[in-house]
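From the pipeline queue, job 12 of 40. The input is one protein chain; the requested action is below.

Action: predict structure.
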Amino acid sequence: MPKDRALNGVRILETGSFYSAAFCAKLLGGLGAEVTKVEPPTGDCSRRYGPFPGDMPDADKSGLFWHLNTGKRSITLDIENPTGGELLLRLAAKYDVLVDNNLPMDMKRWGLTYDAIQQVNPGLVMTTVTPFGYSGPYSDYKAGNLEVCAAAGACRYGLPDREPLKPAGYQAHAQGGVHAAAATVTALLARLKDGLGQHVDISEATAWATFHNLVDIYSHLAGASFKRSGYRRTDTPYPHTTLPCKDGYVMLIAVQGRQWKTFLELIGDGKVPEWYAQDPRFKDRFEVSRKYADELDQRISGWLMAHTKEEIFSLCHERAIPFAPVYTVADLVAQPHLHSRGFFSQIEQPGDGVQTQVGAPFQLSETPWSVTRPAPRLGQHNDDVFRAELGLARSELVQLRQTAVI
């Protein structure tokens, strides 16, 4: 384990549930911060999400929970309970950062506002990552990944006569967590100058809309409209699409004319095929996207279906054509490029052997990101935290368990 990681000595308390706060804290933990995850006595809801070894649900064996919580400690505490809220404030007095994704109205009802936490620890950085932030008309609206994607304009996919589709996975929560982690580091740097904490307020919808949809927002403000077109885009030069090949799918994007011409020469044995070169309909590739994309898809499908996605990728890569294979999860795990970068980590999960998990999300030469321990069992560190850090007696812990506070 590296001795001088960037956030060594920083202590983080993580509250909330599911994805965004957990991902934020994991990113910071990989930089050396000590992360203590606060779960309700019944466990974080992510423990109920698979995949599970052997497809047998187990709160301590969730693949999603493992991914989000490697390197952390786990304590159980019902922060909605007045006693639990008081214990959380006592803990907050001993930490540098609190990462939370509960709605602001809930934190207010439980007496866990930033003002309350600042009173016990003026130097604490409180990072909140919620669907719509802590201010504005939607701040107390409940929303999951789907609703955040829709609100941010990210549900742009699907066929025009069908319902819109969101991007795959939990990307709104993941992006919220990434933005929260970066902003937290900035707040910690500011604290080095004045010793004061601050409230870092991250809106998932704003992060998604401004970071990922910026080009489309400009287009919208300019009066342009966007229409879903299934597996292709029709507002860019042809091709911008995903098509089948011999063993799967490839994504074809050729914004530059040189790229498209080079591809046509590739499939035409060194020259642009006559069916393309002599057809005036194909001179304007924007027009092709809008009117003739199906026909061109059919024209090139024979060549695509005769080659595997790796063959296509290799041939196009040699010619600087930015076409790429669509990988399955199994394909990704086997990628030599990712292994050469140390993207995957082999982590020993007690009782479940060595597990291959996603590792460093970025490379730092002086203070590398790394996983230091497996994901914790539910409440695994209750004694370590409540007795060692708060000085609670064993009898007090027994009473707290009996009353379901921990």
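Job complete. The chain has 17 helices and eleven strands.
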